[in-house]
Amino acid sequence: MLVQVLNGLAFGVLLLVLSSGLALIFGLRGVVNFAHGAIYMLAAYVALSISDRTSFWVALVTVPILLAVAGLLVDRFGLRFLVGRSPLDMVLLTFGITFVVADVVQTFWGTHARTIDPPRVLAGSTDLGFATYPTYRLFVIATGLLVCAGLVAWLKLSRTGLFVRASGDDRVTAGAMGINVDRVSATVVALGFGLAGLAGVLAGPYLTLSPSMGAEILITTFIVVVVGGLGSIGGPMVAALLIGLANALATVQVPTLAAYVPYLLMLVVLLLRPQGIAGRRTAL
Amino acid sequence: MSGQPTVAATLRRRNRAARWQAVAWAGLAAAGLGAPWVVSLYQLQLAQQAVVLGLLALSIGWLLRQTGQLSFGHAAFYGIAGYATSYVAQEADLPIGLTLAAGVACGTVAAFVVGLVTIRVPGIAFAMLTLAIGMLVWVAGGQLHSITRGSDGLNVQLKGTLLGKDVVMYGNPVDAWPLVWGVLMTVVAALWALSRTMWGRRLASIRDNAERMRFSGYATYWPRVLAFTVSGAVAGVAGTLNLVTTSFISLSALFWSTSGIALIVAVIGGVRSVLGPPLGAVLFVVLQSYLAGSGNHYQAVIGLVLIVVVLVAPGGCVELLERGFEAARSRLPSRSRKEPDPSPSPSRPRRPPCCSSMTCPSPTAA
């Protein structure tokens, strides 16, 4: 049972890293990043190539940075032109990116399933007293929680975090107060892409790499964000852990229904609270 | 009021435009029927694919045009209609017309139910929610293996006589063409007419400012549920038509990329006009068949085209055509235009346009 909870936690933390990037980009740019799943997949494949040539640790550091740079480019040459236009245009733009990335991945890495080997230190299992558990998953849980704690601290405590929150709440006023909104936006989009990249690297040795992995997890991430509430950061974090746990427990207890669990959770939450657990109704 | 267009003048101009659009539609419908005599069998087959994809794109595009809501879940209604048709055809011995109607009806009912739940959800969350529900249907389809046969797909034997021909004949594009073309043009005309009714105008007003409509005492929920149902019905027609012409359906019909491609097609063609999505479908099918020979990079190309269209011409190809048309017309001598452009009178500057909910102050704010 406790092992199931840990499994749920590991998947939940992965969703946590992904959905906080998504929620961050939405909160500031008003963009639902449909390319998030594709970026996550691209990160996993790039990590595969890098860790084959050097080591997993190099990939863990470089891949999020590479994708953050990609995020900067997308912001500079795409999203920035769409400020003031319908938010649906931004959705369509990121949706276009999804198709391009999917094609790139299929061209360079093929369509068959791959896995990344975890580094030797994390390869075995650890004795936790009540059970032995794969070390790598513990590493995923620890890293993910650490990163998200850092993200929340950055948003709540630092000066830049204050700017980010202010620009998300009211772009025009924040600009009038002397905040460089364009630069803040670029930072946030880069950070969001970087988080998707980190999730991709972390997922590499834990899940299987396939050209459909992005689309699959994107749906779950959307459910997390809708359940948690668009426009908030804390709500999706709670929802990610909730859905991760519910998923893992349902897989053991009611295997036939497990595939439906995230959807059912989403439907229940939306029927009771259309804006999600912590969402603001006016944000949309 | 000198120089200001009166309401009557605006309506007159609009009616004149509508008359021209109706004439253009009739011409296009008649010309399209001649396609089998002009193009090769392979091209006709492509055209038939384009019609089915165009219908699906039309359903999504029309919803976006009338309600401003972006649906990523229409593959569900497309697939449900297809599977329902095949199921009814196998299990019940109904006349073929009723079988097809039952399939479309199932897609429509599914859209109605989904609309009831999702239409309340605002803006972008709606897009994510329809995507999630579409995937829920896909998951369910995979589990109902006895009905759907999963990704292996289902070969369906339809029996009976449809419009004076054995339904098996519709496997041949030459025989099927009048049917598919007729369905497309009928749907185009019907959706165009619907958007000109009182209901269609009300939908557009709700799209532009739902809050103001609600304050003015109009229902904002049921008109949109109805619009979603109508659009789901069109997706259902596309699914059933696909089954009739290909006699095959598989789980990929339900997968989200089916909706995604249709949405891209609608946007590339242009959602401001009813004919935009079918136009986009033609472009897509042509592009796909052209790229099929060279390493099949149609995904990347179509993604790039979408990105460029969104950045450069948000109105899609229809907008580009209109711009070209306007440019050509402005070169003509001005006597060809009887009605001069009304310009705002200098003494009374026109109020800034107030059309999107983002710029309008809410009625309470004043």
Automatic annotation (TrEMBL), chain A:
InterPro entries: ABC_transp_permease (IPR001851), BCAA_transport_permease (IPR052157). The chain crosses the membrane at residues 6-26, 31-50, 56-78, 90-109, 136-155, 217-246, 252-272. Keywords: Amino-acid transport, Cell membrane, Membrane, Transmembrane, Transmembrane helix, Transport. It is a multi-pass membrane protein. It is found in: Cell membrane. PANTHER family: ABC TRANSPORTER ATP-BINDING PROTEIN (PTHR11795:SF442), BRANCHED-CHAIN AMINO ACID TRANSPORT SYSTEM PERMEASE PROTEIN LIVH (PTHR11795). Belongs to the binding-protein-dependent transport system permease family. LivHM subfamily. This is Branched-chain amino acid ABC transporter permease.
